[in-house]
Design a protein that fits this description.
With 659 residues, the chain is α/β, with parallel strands linked by helices. The chain is 37% helix and 11% strand. The protein is built from 22 helices and 22 strands.
Length: 659
């Protein structure tokens, strides 16, 4: 095949300019659609009194009935790749012309995620109507559908939903999320027709053993399934787990199995262990909240052997499983696990062991386990009652590991334990995240910690301690050691102006900082003024959180004076301070006028607790909501004109797409 000639730089520029022009035209067309729909909404007659009839079709172009559904967080695939955007799409029941424009937008989409805030103002039958209409118009082109915002559905509502999802039959749907089902019977027939399904999320459904049995009956027809999520307290007991486990062999492509917070017990645990042996492709296993100690000593050893045989497994979640020291020894250090893992060495990359009550004995057992996990990148041992003695047992095992995330939050390390940990941090060259929130350490521990921070660190959380000014000053003086720092969480540490000013004087070392959290401290106007001068030079800062301090009008005005230079700022918290009504109004007005602050999410309330000044982002121009709508709401089902936090609307700068 002849080699294609390389594209010249000028041709590349022209091609990209053309793509930008096409995208701008598409956005402009969507803007016009939204404007047309809003104008139609404003012409809606006043609400009918109780008992008056209303149109059932909504097809009369001159008399709108109502406008529903709705704000959709979506992704649109194009030839050049994936362009993500959150788009306001109003499915109109007003007139055919407007409805066609909205439908044309929907047909471009491949991913549909209905936002809870936008569906819940509607009546239950209207929510279903919204979903069914949108899915009906997208039909077989849809690849991902999230219906979790619908909430709990009755049997009749579930049947209506399944009927409305008929266009998905034998289509290209690859991901589906359904939460709130009261019964699974009406859904299983529809699932059986989704031959291309790769991800099935049925969390938070309270399926129970009956629902698990119904699901098991269709698993054999979902041979392409790669992810199965049955977590969120589905209350699947031993019998349900037993039936499901028998079907795991029919899922050769399954890579993720999530079963957190169920009630499998000894019967279910034994069945799961047998089923795991048939899941050679499994990479992620979540058994959080299932007390594996209930399967007995032999069962724990068998589970260890099964885990060791999963040579593709890289993420294991065993938090809140009552895995005390003896259980950990039987699971990890017994011959069953060691023999099965030895041929390929151990493959576990992420290990989550939160809320297991380790104490010192558990730490001693974990230290021996870590000797056999040489590739471990993430270790989460939060809320395990680890004290300095436990850290003394654990620290030597951490030396030299390729850890990227180390989470010790909600323990009892105190300054002594933090000092021990700080001594090994320099041997962790890949460490990016360190979380020591709520560990009851003071300035002494913070000084040792600051001196030992590795250069690779990007995220440091020491919230909920008592490091005070001494600790923050020590940290500030060592910021030059962590040039990659992106998040610094100092919430609730009794820090006052002295500490904040020291921090401000050293922030020029943190050019990559995205988030600075100083909520619930003792910062007043002087500290806030010094901080605003420092952050005004930080072009990357996205979140500045100063809520629940002692900031007054002077600090508020200092923030207002630099708001124009914080071009990347997406979230500002000055709530629960000592700011007057007038100062709040000034800052709020500036936030509405600064172009790049139109998408800013701002928490702001005066000293009387009035939060009417909070700012969630407006459309450009922003005059309409104040002049024409008393409380910032339009006529379209009671949805805010400016959208909701985190939702991008065409013409709104600085928003984020939904998650």
């Amino acid at each position: 095949m002849p080699k294609m000639p390389a594209e010249k730089p000028q041709e590349t520029i022209r091609r990209l300019q053309l793509q930008v022009t096409e995208l701008q035209a598409s956005v402009a067309a969507r803007d016009k659609t939204i404007a047309d729909l809003r104008r139609a909404a404003k012409s809606t007659p006043s609400k009918k009194k109780k008992g008056e009839a209303s149109s059932s079709t909504g097809e009369d172009a001159g008399t709108p009935w109502f406008i529903v559904a709705a704000d959709v967080c979506c992704s649109h695939w194009c030839d050049t790749g994936l362009v993500q955007y959150g788009e306001l799409v109003r499915v109109s029941l007003v007139c055919t012309a407007l409805r066609k424009k909205a439908i044309d937008c929907l047909r471009l989409l491949r991913r549909l995620d209905f936002q809870r805030d936008l569906l819940w103002p509607l009546l239950p039958d209207q929510r279903l109507q919204v979903v069914v209409k949108a899915v009906g118009q997208m039909g077989g082109g849809l690849e991902s559908l999230d219906l979790s915002a619908l909430g709990k559905l009755s049997d009749q509502e579930s049947a209506t939903l399944v009927s409305g999802l008929a266009p998905l039959k034998n289509g290209g749907i690859k991901e589906i999320t359904m939460c709130g089902l009261k019964t699974f019977k009406t859904v299983k027939k529809m699932l059986a027709t989704l031959s291309s399904l790769k991800c099935l999320d049925l969390s938070k459904n309270v399926l129970g053993d009956e629902g698990a049995t119904e699901l098991a009956s269709v698993l054999g027809k979902l041979s392409t399934l790669e992810k199965l999520d049955l977590g969120g307290k589905n209350n699947i007991g031993g019998d349900g787990c037993k039936v499901l486990a028998r079907k795991f062999a029919l899922l050769p492509a399954l890579k993720e199995l999530l079963l957190p917070y169920n009630h499998m017990g000894e019967t279910g645990g034994d069945s799961l262990i047998k089923g795991l042996k048939e899941m050679a492709a499994l990479k992620v296993l979540d058994l959080t909240g299932n007390h594996i100690i209930h399967v007995g000593k032999n069962g724990v050893q068998a589970l260890g052997a099964a885990l060791g045989g999963l040579h593709e497994l890289h993420t294991l979640r065993l938090g809140d499983t009552n895995m005390i020291g003896d259980v950990m020894k039987e699971l990890w250090l017994h011959d069953g696990f060691m023999k099965t893992t030895r041929p390929r060495n151990c493959h576990i990359l992420r290990l989550y062991l939160a809320r297991n009550g380790f104490h010192t004995e558990g730490c001693k057992a974990l230290a021996k386990v870590l000797e056999h996990l040489p590739m471990l990148e993430v270790l989460d041992v939060r809320d395990n009652e680890i004290d300095p003695d436990g850290m003394r047992e654990l620290a030597p095992a951490l030396v030299g590991m390729p850890l990227q995330e180390l989470i010790f939050a909600q323990n009892d390390l105190a300054s002594e334990g933090v000092c021990i940990l700080a001594g090994v941090l320099s041997s962790l060259p890949k460490l990016r995240e360190l979380n020591l929130t709520d560990n009851n350490f003071t300035g002494d521990g913070a000084e040792d910690l600051a001196a030992g921070l590795p250069e690779s660190l990007c995220h440091l959380a020491i919230a909920g301690n008592k490091v005070r000014n001494r600790g923050v000053i020590a940290l500030a003086n060592n910021l030059h050691k962590v040039p990659l720092l992106r998040e610094l969480l100092l919430e609730e540490n009794e820090v006052s102006d002295e500490g904040v000013l020291a921090l401000a004087n050293n922030l020029h070392h943190s050019t990559s900082l995205l988030c600075l959290n100083l909520i619930r401290n003792k910062i007043s106007d002087a500290g806030c003024q010094g901080l605003t001068v420092a952050v005004s030079k930080m072009s990357s800062l996205q979140k500045l959180l100063l809520g629940e301090n002692y900031v007054g009008d002077t600090g508020c005005m200092a923030m207002a004076s630099v708001l124009g230079s914080l071009t990347a700022l997406k979230e500002l918290d000055l709530g629960s301070n000592r700011i007057s009504h007038d100062a709040c109004r000034v800052l709020s007005a500036i936030a509405r006028k600064v172009p790049h602050a139109q998408g800013l999410c701002m928490r702001l309330e005066d000293q009387d607790g009035d939060d009417d000044y909070s700012h969630e982002g407006n459309e450009e121009g922003g005059s309409e909501s104040d002049e024409e709508h008393d409380d910032g709401m339009d006529f379209m089902g009671g949805f805010p004109m400016g959208g909701f936090p985190g939702m991008f609307m065409p013409g709104m700068a600085g928003g984020e797409d939904g998650d």
